[in-house]
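Margin note: ligand = pyridoxal-5'-phosphate.
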Amino acid sequence: MTQVATATRELILANLEAVRGRIREACRRAGRSPEEVELLLVTKTVPPERIRVAVEAGERLIGENKVQEALAKYRELQDLPIEWHFIGHLQTNKVKDVLTFASMVQSVDRIRLVEKLDQHLQRLGRSLDILIQVNTSYEESKFGVAPEETLAFVRQVARYDTLNIKGLMTIGKLSADPEDARRCFRLLRQLRDQIAGEGIPRVRMDILSMGMSGDLEIAVEEGSTMVRVGTAVFGPRPQPDSHYWSERAKAR
Ligand SMILES: *Cc1c(COP(=O)(O)O)cnc(C)c1O
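Resulting structure:
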């Protein structure tokens, strides 16, 4: 496997320490215990040898948003104790592949996808942990269930006993005003409380996956239990058409 230059390794480790510090500090300010907030490292476009650096430094949760890319990295890093989460838009024709590596799918947002997951899981005789993705920013470009429809959707998904609902996921609004993201996170937390209060059989609402590199403090203040961080640890991502991963795939 390609080696990671010492400077790159040290940068990843320093960034990781900084992010852990930000989470601790946000928890302290919010009067929460740092154990309540897990760190999921988002490694889209990040080559496997750099992911290895972070995992060897103690991280365990890795999130990817493209099935083929994730599958290739999963295969390359099988010796590591990684829990792979799928966090991207999932096409129904990729469901079979996602089930080979993902221990959680955070982006469940439509019943057609639920049906497909259920079909494959039944065939495999197993279940899958999922989060329901909610479009709290109401942006048309974003995936996710509409906030008003979330409770009804959760009830519907709860009927599939191959799927274990563990909570909710959202992407905060990207905006110059941090209060925009706060509104998204607060809404997700309110939905969580409402759904948890319904006591729907088999439905857990323990996980609130929200907060990224730019807004994790706000998410922690609003009750996040899992922040998803990419650039703050691995640096800026290259443009999609020139990024390392596709160059590498082409070279093979
Ligand atoms: C890319 C991505 C992240 C991480 O974003 P950063 O700003 O790089 O921390 C988090 N969640 C999802 C769903 C993503 O696609």
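The beta strands are 38-42, 61-64, 83-86, 102-108, 128-133, 163-169, 207-209, 226-229.
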